[in-house]
Specification:
Radius of gyration: 24 Å
CATH architecture of the domain at 281-424: Orthogonal Bundle
Number of strands: 11
Subcellular location: Cytoplasm
CATH topology of the domain at 281-424: Transferase(Phosphotransferase), domain 1
Bound molecules: adenosine-5'-triphosphate, magnesium ion
Largest sheet: 5 strands, antiparallel
Shape: globular
Region (Disordered): 1-88, 126-145, 468-544
EC number: 2.7.11.1
CATH superfamily of the domain at 281-424: Transferase(Phosphotransferase) domain 1
Binding site for Mg(2+): 324, 336
Biased composition (Acidic residues): 50-75, 486-501
Low-confidence stretches: 2-52, 64-93, 461-551
Strand order of the largest sheet: 3-4-5-7-6
CATH class of the domain at 281-424: Mainly Alpha
Distance between the termini: 31 Å
Length: 551
């Protein structure tokens, strides 16, 4: 999502082509409506359809537990899917002296409303940090948009009642799709902690462009009802919450997911103790005398984060840019992950390429000697190699080392630019079905030209990984860092109820044919066919989108 905190900002690159089944990409197909144009005309926002019924508070109170509503006691959602958010909320102690709900949960909705309304004074949205709003237009908008609808207010009162937040203050950001508010919570009677509350707008009609993130997302097969704004927004909030959990559990700097209820998400605050949020990377104040060194190391840090996001979290951010990264003290923080997709999403690699372009362009503008998009892409999706320190940064430095010595002269830079352009236009098949011309590609592989295929990392280790001196395929660093993080994730926050959804990617599969099941063997055989005459050991990595297709 493009933050509206950036008026006049250049919009992230959108792929100039549309994928059609069995027909590859077609640049001539009409473009999807850019996100900024996809909003409904002003008038339609005022129709009955556009607004959800603000008075309908049943789903807010129906769990009687001030938890994220709409879920059965077995922790399953309305469509039988495991409700990770609920499990997470349930298991995560908020703090030791957590207040007991003051309202009688068996009271009628009206009684509950009046009981909770005593917290009204704790929502003080006029308390805006002026300079936090970044410019005057935004400050005006923040003021005009501070009116929360009754549903949102009730959710916030419930959260205050539970002690998830103590007070809610002014808007840190107001956008087209969500507002983010600053809040404080009291961990014990004396310790005040800052929190951020992201409130998704339910009266928005800009879901058209969101469809591409949901379609093909196995986690959202059920439950997506495009005709129901409120439900869709709830799904987005849930998606952001789940993604944040994964990212946070993987040790990538991001807001800590704290609680989710319907369209309201409470997370850790990225900012100082007084409530000033860290700047976005685009607004980062980097001292001029150290700028070159700091920007370069931030670039390397970001490449590492993207690889870790892909390999450990199995996610592609899908809206990564200087607007969705916060900066503080040489550290990057990833935010705004509601649109992030699983790496087996049919368009994940296209989104990844877009993320690489947007972030690469930004760092190039800061004067950083960036790597070619294609090199970064390969680095991120290559199954072998380190996914955390020590080793991750070193492997990026190796990419620089192995780049031709001449890469710094003008000619090489021009070549890199051309290569970037070609790469951005190139078709990236994500599944075997999508490969244009299997025979031609097989022939290229047969002639030792497999490394020229954009999708070589999706095929087989033998094509991807350098051979060692004795001709064996190097497995690289196949350490289990990811698994360690994942099991931590499972034990701390997840019950086994959600294993169906999240952990199927998290456990990892032993490598080697011995461990393949029948379907996997079938894929392996097909891959072997492509890769003849030297049948490779198929990468049995669960990371391969190709592999996942046939699961
Ligand atoms: N956890 C947080 N701590 C501090 N600031 C935050 C946090 N989350 C978001 N923000 C601030 O709020 C802004 C908007 O957040 P985010 O990018 O998640 O919303 P968005 O989805 O882009 O909303 P929209 O698209 O409607 O603008 C960010 O640029 C950042 O300044
Ligand atoms: Mg944003």
């Amino acid at each position: 999502m493009e933050s509206s905190t950036s008026p006049g900002a250049v919009h992230p690159h959108e792929p100039p082509h549309v994928y059609t089944h069995n027909n590859g990409y077609d640049a001539s197909v009409e473009q999807e409506i850019p996100r900024t144009l996809a909003t409904a005309p002003e008038d339609s926002l005022h129709t009955a359809e556009a607004y959800d019924d603000d008075d309908d508070l049943d789903d807010i109170f129906d769990d009687g537990n001030y938890d994220d509503g709409n879920y059965d006691d077995d922790g399953l959602g309305p469509n039988g899917e495991p409700d990770l958010a609920r499990n997470y909320n349930r298991q995560k102690p908020l703090h030791s002296n957590q207040q007991k709900p003051a309202a009688n949960t068996f009271n009628s909705v009206d009684d509950q409303i009046s009981a909770l309304s005593k917290h009204a004074a704790k929502i003080r949205l006029d308390d805006v940090k002026e300079s936090q709003t970044r410019d005057k237009d935004k400050a005006d908008r923040a003021t005009s948009e501070q009116v929360l609808d009754q549903r949102t207010r009730m959710i916030l009162y419930q959260m205050i009642n539970r002690g998830v937040v103590g007070e809610v203050h002014g808007a840190i950001s107001t956008g087209k799709e969500a507002n983010v508010y600053g809040a404080v919570a009291y961990e014990d009677s004396s310790t005040k902690v800052q929190r951020a509350v992201k409130v998704y707008k339910t009266a928005i009609l800009s879901f058209k462009d969101r469809e591409r993130y949901i379609t093909g997302e196995h986690r959202f097969k059920a439950g997506a009802d495009k005709g129901n704004n409120r439900k869709m927004v709830k799904l987005w909030a849930e998606k952001e919450f789940r993604n944040l959990r994964r990212i946070h559990a993987a040790g990538i700097a991001c807001p800590e997911p704290i609680q989710l209820k319907l369209h309201v998400l409470v997370m850790g605050f990225l900012g100082d103790k007084r409530g000033w949020a860290y700047p976005r990377l685009r607004d980062a104040n980097i001292p001029a005398d150290e700028a070159e060194q700091i920007w370069s190391s931030l670039y390397i840090q970001l490449l590492g984060i993207m690889r870790r996001l892909y390999q450990v979290c199995k996610l592609v951010h899908a809206d990564l840019s200087e607007y969705n990264i916060l900066y503080h003290d040489k550290q990057l923080y990833i935010i705004d992950v509601s649109q992030s997709v699983e790496h087996d999403h049919p368009r994940s690699l296209e989104f990844l390429r877009m993320d690489i372009k947007n972030t690469g362009d930004f760092f190039r503008r800061q004067g950083v000697d960036t790597l070619a998009d294609r090199v970064v892409f390969d680095f991120i999706i290559a199954p072998g190699g380190p996914v955390q320190e020590p080793g991750l940064e070193q492997s990026i430095e190796q990419l620089y080392t192995s780049r031709a010595e001449s890469a710094t002269d003008d000619k090489a830079l021009a070549e890199q630019e051309v290569d970037n352009e070609v790469f951005r236009q190139q078709y990236i098949p994500q599944t075997l079905e999508q490969v244009y011309d299997i025979e031609k590609d097989a022939e290229r592989i047969g002639h030792g030209e497999g490394d020229k295929l954009v999708y070589r990392n999706l095929l087989a280790d033998q094509v991807v990984l350098p051979k060692t001196a004795d001709g064996q395929v190097s497995e690289g660093d196949q350490s289990d860092e990811g698994a360690a993080v994942d099991s931590e994730d499972d034990s701390d926050e997840d019950s086994d109820e959600d294993s169906d959804d999240e952990s199927k990617f998290l456990k990892g599969t032993p490598r080697g044919k011995r461990f393949e099941d029948r379907d996997e063997k079938k894929v392996s055989a097909e891959i072997d066919m492509i890769s003849t005459p030297n049948p490779p050991a198929f990468s049995n990595s669960p990371l391969s989108p190709l592999f996942l297709l046939f699961k």
